[in-house]
Amino acid sequence: MRRSAWEVYEWVLEAARREGLGVGEGEIVRALRRLGRSAFRAFAQRLGLSPKYLRHDLLPVADLPEVLREALRQGLPLREAHRLHRLVRRGLLTLEDLEGKPPEALAALPYPDLEVPLEAPIWLFPPDPRGREALSPVVAKALVLRYTQRGELVVDPMAGYGTVVEAARALGRRAWGGDIQPLGPSVERADIRHLRERFRREAALLVLHPPTFAAFQKEGGRDLDPEERYAAYVQYLTDLVGYSLPALRQGGRLALVVSPRKEISPKEAQEGRDFFLSPFERALAEALSLRPVRYHLAVSRDGRQDWHVFVGEAG
């Protein structure tokens, strides 16, 4: 059974107690925060957690006001708890606004920065502190609202932190997220290649958020000849779409969320290479049972992050 964020937090505290890092919650959290990078990473890895998730998502639970800690105990997604805490600190909400509300009502509280006109040509979102690879909650929420109805199933087989899963559940949808390296408690450890064994023609929306081209190169693409790198990336994306299609119901939508290269180096230009061009339309077009239907552009307000979303419909 999947554990809630609060259960994972308590499990971390108990593991720290067993390792002699303290007894009370505050003492343990302070001890963990004082650990050196290597020791902290080793502790996280012993628990099967991402060090980044442990440091920046789980440990700050100790700093939340009691109303949000109680909401976590009742099942509020961790990301929503931190979002609401930020709103309180910024003066956009008060603790009295949160009192007495169940998790579903708390998750539905408005956050102006997370609302975008769904039909607008560009979705603007606040910069995401998790880095360039992380999908903004704005994009996740907009996709769920734009392409699903309450009660429908949303699937994210490369879920990472679980942003899409948490957005879908907060909006009254059913949701499942998997990843070979989960970064959040709402995400199961699962390989996209086995998705057809988990779902068969069930999902109303499948969000596919693969690594960017830069991340793909770091994971092994640099071993290829430069002229083969982007061709390999195109094939990689095409394979991901192929693994995903069996999970979509007839008329369901697949949203491919990517970030194309914007420029080529002087050396690449001198050698006449043009593999920087976006391959994503081709990846969708080569999926014979998927009809391209829409394109969205999402950009952070500081201009440092951008996501291009290509949407196709399953036949």
Structural class label: alpha/beta
Strand content: 15-25%
How does CATH name the architecture of the largest domain?
A: 3-Layer(aba) Sandwich
Give the class-level CATH name of the largest domain: Alpha Beta
Put simply, the count of helices is: 15
Q: How would you describe the overall organization of this protein?
A:
By secondary structure, the chain is of the alpha/beta class. The protein contains 15 helices and eight strands. It has two domains: 5-107, no CATH class; 115-314, Vaccinia Virus protein VP39 (Rossmann fold, 3-Layer(aba) Sandwich). The protein has helices spanning 5-18, 25-34, 37-46, 51-58, 66-73, 78-89, 95-98, 103-107, 137-147, 163-170, 195-198, 213-218, 226-244, 266-270, 280-285, and strands at residues 122-125, 153-156, 174-179, 188-189, 203-208, 248-258, 290-300, 306-314. Strand 7 and strand 8 form a beta hairpin. Helix 5 (66-73) runs antiparallel to helix 6 (78-89). The radius of gyration is 21 Å and the shape is globular.
Task: Based on the model shown, name its key terms.
alpha/beta
Give a quick rundown of the structure.
Keywords: Plasmid. The chain has 315 residues and is α/β, with parallel strands linked by helices.
